[in-house]
Design a protein that fits this description.
By secondary structure, the chain is mainly α. The chain has one domain. The protein is built from 4 helices and no strands. About 0% of the residues are buried.
């Protein structure tokens, strides 16, 4: 059994977003910012608050950078569950 129309619509919307130049530019910028954040933390003295702030920022960067891969995996899992639920 294929995805439901609603599931298909959601995954297709993500696919369209991931295919845009704007998304690719955003991901490139986030990767650069993530690298700069790491360099900054290694090169300057930091307080615990600074470290927690940077960890939070890095977590957000990583979530967005990995979103496309996560959605691909979610689509495969959803398709597999729909096939398992198909009685035919």
């Amino acid at each position: 059994m294929a995805l439901t129309p609603e599931q298909n619509e959601i995954f297709d919307a993500y696919d369209r977003m991931f295919a845009t130049d704007g998304w690719k530019m955003l991901i490139d910028d986030l990767k650069r910012n993530q690298e700069d954040l790491g360099k900054m933390m290694l090169s300057s003295p930091s307080t615990n608050d600074d470290l927690w702030f940077c960890k939070g920022r890095n977590d957000v960067f990583q979530t967005l950078i990995g979103l496309e891969s996560m959605m691909e995996q979610l689509r495969k899992m959803t398709e597999a569950q729909n096939v398992e639920a198909d009685p035919v």
